């Protein structure tokens, strides 16, 4: 899987790279447009987020599969064919973006609100990339006849074995779309400014904890759950705490 989508003058762009790159470009354009009063400073935020996200995504994947990568160190930082985990991408991107925003003296609330709008775009792009590159695939089901056509399909696993499986990418894209609709509604109503990012992360992470229970790729098990489910729940709790902190600090700010 992971077919070549673009081939120009010897340059080949595979499906996984294409969709991740498209999501990153859309997010970059959104952040710079919303910060058009200081476009270069916001471009620095984009670059920091991209670097942090790429490093975090790959570092998490390597850590979760250290039994393999300890014997194949040369493959640890190959980013072109998958092997990127969303928890590390999220933490790296948010840390990079907010650190750069602080260094460039940008409005942290405005940057967080821009990132909130980027979250569903990035999530949808990641799921589409997974659909094209055989990652994020679902568990096998007995027969396609037991499920609606959109919920199950014949698809390969990482070893190329084709079987009827739950169509998790379409569920992930739908959840990203719901997150995007909520983000747009909050922005339109101009409510929860500064807390929107944390709220959307918490809700999306909870939805991913449910979806992860139906994933078929190998990951270690922690406390009787898949490691990615545990990380989903940790991310949800972390974001919920930051959302509560952002909301509780607003009355104090108004009093000053």
Automatic annotation (TrEMBL):
For this UniProt record, the keywords arranged alphabetically read as follows: Cell membrane, Membrane, Transferase, Transmembrane, Transmembrane helix
Listed GO CC annotations: plasma membrane
Q: Which GO biological process entries does UniProt record here?
A: lipoprotein biosynthetic process
- What parts of the sequence cross the membrane? 15-33, 45-64, 84-103, 115-139, 166-188, 197-218, 230-247
- Tell me the GO molecular function terms: phosphatidylglycerol-prolipoprotein diacylglyceryl transferase activity
Recorded superkingdom: Bacteria
Matching entries from InterPro entries are given as: Lgt
Family according to the record: Belongs to the Lgt family.
**What's this protein's name?**
Prolipoprotein diacylglyceryl transferase
Organism, by scientific name, is Candidatus Thermofonsia Clade 1 bacterium
């Amino acid at each position: 899987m992971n077919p070549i989508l673009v081939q120009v003058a010897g340059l080949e762009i595979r499906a996984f790279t294409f969709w991740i790159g498209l999501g990153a470009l859309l997010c970059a354009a959104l952040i710079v447009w919303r910060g058009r009063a200081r476009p270069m400073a916001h471009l620095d935020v984009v670059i920091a987020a991209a670097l942090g996200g790429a490093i975090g995504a790959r570092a998490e994947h390597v850590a979760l599969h250290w039994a393999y990568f300890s014997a194949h160190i040369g493959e640890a930082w190959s980013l072109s064919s998958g092997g990127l985990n969303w928890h590390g991408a999220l933490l790296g991107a948010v840390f990079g973006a907010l650190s750069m925003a602080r260094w460039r003296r940008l409005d942290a609330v405005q940057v967080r609100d821009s990132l909130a709008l980027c979250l569903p775009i990035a999530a949808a792009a990641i799921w589409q990339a997974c659909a094209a590159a055989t990652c994020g695939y679902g568990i096998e089901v007995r027969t396609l006849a037991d499920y609606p056509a959109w919920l199950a399909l014949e698809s390969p696993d990482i070893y190329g074995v084709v079987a009827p499986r739950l169509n998790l990418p379409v569920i992930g894209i739908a959840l990203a779309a719901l997150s995007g609709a909520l983000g747009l509604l909050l922005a339109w109503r101009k409510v929860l400014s500064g807390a929107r990012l944390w709220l959307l992360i918490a809700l999306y992470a909870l939805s991913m904890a449910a979806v992860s229970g139906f994933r078929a790729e190998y990951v270690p098990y922690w406390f009787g759950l898949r490691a990615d489910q545990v990380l989903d729940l940790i991310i949800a709790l972390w974001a919920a705490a930051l959302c509560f902190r952002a909301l509780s600090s607003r009355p104090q700010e108004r009093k000053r």
